[in-house]
Design brief:
Elements lengths: L3 H29 L6 H8 L3 H7 L3 H11 L12 H18 L1 H10 L10 H20 L9 H23 L4 H12 L6 H4 L8 H12 L11
């Protein structure tokens, strides 16, 4: 009979092993690109057996999909009375994670990797767009958006604009200024969609993502992912 403690220990080991595989894969995909990366190199980086990897993932493609999923925004960020502030927080936290979390960095790289033809790279963009569309719909229901705003068009535009801004920041300075660049993006976009009365109350500071992420971790018993300084 397995004890409850024993089962919990097994689950903890499984979670750590899966995370180790994804982190190793993130490094390999980041260095070589999806097409040139091999399962063997991922195994060597992770320090796990082939059996351990295939317990969690059936193929290199599944590993890559796991990395892609890690780039999605946290789904339990602190709630805000203003839904447009929630929208800002999602973007700024993503910028912060892109600066520090190798899994998120690799997920974005895979989504933009033209050589990863067998992956459904569009799924990451669709998921991000759907989350933004949901927040914008909530904002509209609270009277925070200008009457003519189409939430689907706006969500798609913000997703594409963020992808471009982060790519520029990566090429320029390895994303060191990403918080500032995203802040500038939002300062240009939000006046065209937000009611004037709400706009002045929004916090668009470049360090907003770091502060919100710290708030999330302080109030979460199980943080979604450790952030590694890099």
């Amino acid at each position: 009979m397995h004890t409850v403690e024993g089962l919990m220990a097994q689950q903890d080991r499984a979670i750590r092993t899966r995370r180790s595989i994804l982190e190793a894969a993130a490094r390999v995909f980041g260095e070589r690109g999806y097409a040139s990366a091999t399962v063997e190199e991922i195994l060597n980086r992770a320090g796990v057996t082939r059996g351990a990897l295939y317990f969690h993932f059936s193929s290199k493609e599944e590993v890559a999909l796991g990395v892609l999923e890690a780039q999605l925004p946290l789904d339990r960020l602190p709630e805000r009375s203003s839904k447009l502030q929630k929208l800002v927080d999602h973007g700024m936290v993503m910028a912060h994670r892109l600066q520090h979390d190798p899994l998120v960095q690799a997920g974005v790289s895979l989504a933009l990797d033209q050589g990863a033809r067998e992956l459904d790279r569009d799924a990451a963009f669709r998921a991000w767009t759907e989350q933004l569309e949901q927040i914008l719909t909530e904002a509209r229901s609270q009277g925070e958006l200008l009457p003519h705003i189409d939430v689907t068009d706006t969500a798609e535009f913000l997703t594409g604009a963020f992808a471009g801004v982060q790519a520029m920041s990566q090429a320029s300075c390895n994303r060191a200024d990403l918080g500032r660049r995203v802040s500038i993006l939002l300062r240009h976009v939000l006046p065209s969609i937000s009611t004037p009365a709400l706009l002045a109350a929004l916090d668009l500071s470049p360090d907003r993502g770091e502060r919100v992420f710290e708030e999330y971790e302080a109030n979460s018993p199980e943080p979604a992912a450790p952030v590694t300084q890099g």
